[in-house]
Design brief:
The chain is an alpha/beta fold. It is built from 13 helices and ten strands. The protein binds 5'-O-[(R)-(carboxyoxy)(hydroxy)phosphoryl]adenosine and zinc ion.
Length: 349
């Protein structure tokens, strides 16, 4: 760590995690997260109003906790970064308002950054400067995209995305129909360990030859989710017990197989040798192993941050903010908007 690298505080409130991260250059100093996930569990999904209220209550204590962990005072920071979108409108507003107040009070620049690009940038806190160009695969509860990255602060080009459910959404819905609770990804990951991934041959969306013509780098998980529901229903109708671990493992294999195949195809087609995987689903243990195994045989390198940095957090926002400062990008105006549908091509507002 160089002492003169910028000290950046990042704020994340796009969904149900209030995250405040502090980085100096590529060094992570604090990553404080307060989650309202327990308050949403009984609804089987995030309730936007509940999330916004929880952000409001958690914001100041989480900022204080991050500063205490990093051993800094707010006056020490060189810049504030905040997720300006995409995400839940009311939730984003809380983070953006807090960031503006801090930036204004401290007289420091503010950077309103894209949540999805932040999921990619966070990897440099663990593995050093991002390889550029790289293929990024972003798989979270709200998004599943393949991106071509030439410069993480300006050059993010979409190659493909889900045409229906996001990968994390599929995990959440399948967990729900198996009665496994919310969020679904971590429980399916755990259940799958004692099941067989080849027990049931679930469909691989958008991999048939005729689909590849139009949707080579796109994903579809809604047919898979329906196939799992039908399979479970048939089993219940016949009065046989549902082998939950086998269903979880076979479903997980279908998702990971398609994700890895398409990411590798994107890299090969562009002649790019580095893939960065980010977002909550990147925490999946099977996805991590499958991606590394298959990539290694093609001479492609895969970088995935540790699971705690894959799910939403403030460090990822600080990491992208730090890159904005390092690359001399113009800060956002103090009246920057929160944009719930901010496109991935807009990395900095
Ligand atoms: O990135 P994230 O924390 O929030 C969004 O921006 O959406 O991703 C949350 C999603 C949820 O759908 C959750 O079920 C999924 O990531 N997830 C996982 C795992 N851990 C979290 N999916 C599969 N395996 C996991 N281990
Ligand atoms: Zn996210």
């Amino acid at each position: 760590m160089t002492a003169d690298a910028p000290l950046v505080l990042g704020i994340e409130t796009s969904c149900d995690e209030t995250g405040v991260g502090i980085v100096r250059g590529h060094t992570l100093l604090a990553d404080a997260v307060a989650s309202s996930v327990d308050e949403h569990a009984r609804f089987g999904g995030v309730v936007p109003e509940v999330a916004s209220r929880a952000h409001l209550e958690a914001m100041v204590p989480t900022i204080e906790r991050a500063c205490a962990t990093a051993g800094i005072r707010p006056y020490d920071v060189d810049a504030i970064a905040v997720t300006s979108g995409p995400g839940l409108a009311g939730a984003l507003l809380v983070g953006v308002a807090a960031a503006k107040a801090l930036a204004f009070a401290l007289g420091k620049p503010i950077y309103g950054v894209n949540h999805l690009a932040a999921h990619v940038a966070v990897d440099q806190l663990e593995h050093g400067p991002l390889p550029e160009p790289a293929i990024a695969m972003l798989v979270s509860g709200g998004h599943s995209s393949l991106l071509r990255i030439t410069d993480v602060t300006t050059g993010v080009e979409p190659m493909g995305a889900t045409i229906d459910d996001a990968a994390g959404e599929a995990f959440d819905k399948v967990a729900r129909l198996l009665g496994l609770g919310f969020p679904g990804g971590p429980v399916i990951d755990r259940e799958a360990r004692s099941g067989s991934s080849v027990a049931i041959d679930f469909p691989r969306g958008l991999t048939a030859r005729h689909d590849l013509e139009r949707h080579r780098f796109d994903f579809s998980f809604s047919g898979l989710k329906t196939a799992v529901a039908r399979w479970v229903e048939a089993r219940e109708r016949s009065g046989e017990p549902v082998p939950v671990a086998d269903v979880a493992a076979s479903f997980q294999e279908a998702v990971c197989d398609v994700l890895v195949r398409k990411a590798l195809d994107a890299a090969s087609s562009e002649g790019i040798e580095d893939i960065v995987i980010g977002g909550g689903v990147a925490a999946n243990s099977r996805l991590r192993v499958l991606a590394e195994d298959r990539a290694a045989s093609l001479g492609i390198r895969v970088r995935v941050p540790r699971p705690g940095l894959c799910t939403d957090n403030g460090a990822m926002v600080a990491a992208l903010g730090s890159e904005m400062v390092a690359r001399g990008r113009t800060p956002s105006a103090l009246d920057l908007p929160a944009d719930s549908s901010q496109p991935i091509t807009s990395v900095l507002v």
